Amino acid sequence: MEKLRVVLLFGGRSSEHSISCATAGGVLRAIDRDRYDVIPVGITREGAFVLEADDPERFTLDPERLPEVIDNGTRVRWPSDAITRELTVTDTSTELSGTAAGTRSLGTVDVVFPILHGRFGEDGTVQGLLELLGLPYVGNGVLASAVGMDKHATKTALEGAGIEVAPWVTLTEAQVAADPELWERRTRSLGLPVFVKPARAGSSVGVTKVSDWSELDAALDIAFAEDRTVLVESAIAGREIEVAVLEGRAAGDVRVSVAGEVVVTGRDFYDFEAKYLDAPGVDLVCPADLGDGELFELQRIARRAFEAIGGEGLARVDVFFTDEGFVVNEVNTMPGFTPISMFPTCWLNSGLEYPELITELIEVGYARGAR
Fold first, then answer.
1. Which of 76, 165, 188, 214 has its CA 20 to 30 A from that of 114?
2. Per-residue confidence at 202, pLDDT binned at 50, 70, 90?
3. Burial 68-103 (b: 16+ CB within 10 A, else e)
């Protein structure tokens, strides 16, 4: 069987750069080398595309030293048109190539796996680039990526599809400055506590829980440092449940995993340190303790949410399970993908091993590009 050549694209300009690198390390370890030739392409924090070493140990998630893409002097060049699909690299040193400096071919690309988190990657920008170049890729398209990245757009789409979401107010710095009394009334109408979130950031970056209105201004400053648009959202009292979604190889075939639960015992919420830096006070339980009817209903809602944003490839749907039912919190179009992240863990408990999950995602993306 002829191998597919897969570009693994990671890093990027967002605040989630290191998490993307950690995900790349997990994929590099587990991808089926009998089926795929891998070209690791990193994006530096400044936005340069560089050829990375095929070495997962470089991207281990260490709380003492978060992984990142360093500018090594190479420059990866995308195909010059939508016909060639040839990737090239310009070397200024011999560190990676072992040959003289210059430009060389990396071969014809079959599919791109953009495991990018946050803006400038998960938000439809890179997906648009790949569409222009005619390159098949893993995951959601331009529209779903853009909608899923923007919390206001996601909530609007879900609400329009009849899916319950937490009440929220969206604001910008200019709006607050123009009429502070109006926006204070609107935010206070949500009641306490509230969460203040950047509209387009993930991994809980820039998120603050506000339990007293005196804390609101500082929380807004933190969120506005990440994005020019911010959400103030009612806190929902309920269990934090997550399910993983996969697009099938046949059109309309969407699968939803068993559920996992985030049990927060010693923290205000499931923040960045708890998600990635092994901070105490959080346990991940999978499968979650749900009745058959409850799981069926959650899977139905997750499928509807995925379809509401025009989802393709994969997603993780996060909900609150309250006394009244399920409230959707987020549809994450490129969830954390390290081997211990909730997305692969949910599929592992549904009978799909991590290497098989990677294969399924690549094959679905490649097949979609051929349609």
1. 165
2. low
3. ebeebebbbebbeeeeebebbbebeeeebeeeeeee
Does residue 136 carry a pLDDT above 80?
Answer: yes
- The answer to whether residues 288 and 241 touch, using CB atoms and an 8 Å cutoff, is yes
330 touches 240 (CB < 8 A): no
d(CA 285, CA 294): 16
Query: Parallel, antiparallel, or unpaired for β 229-234 and 168-172?
Result: antiparallel
As to burial, measured by CB atoms within 10 angstroms (0-12 exposed, 13-18 middle, 19+ buried), residue 308 is buried
CATH number of 4-137: 3.40.50.20
Fold type of domain 147-165+237-370: D-amino Acid Aminotransferase; Chain A, domain 1 (3.30.470)
- pLDDT for 342-356, tens place per residue? 999 999 999 999 999
* This prediction's pTM: 0.89
**Residue whose tokens read 């009612």:** 234
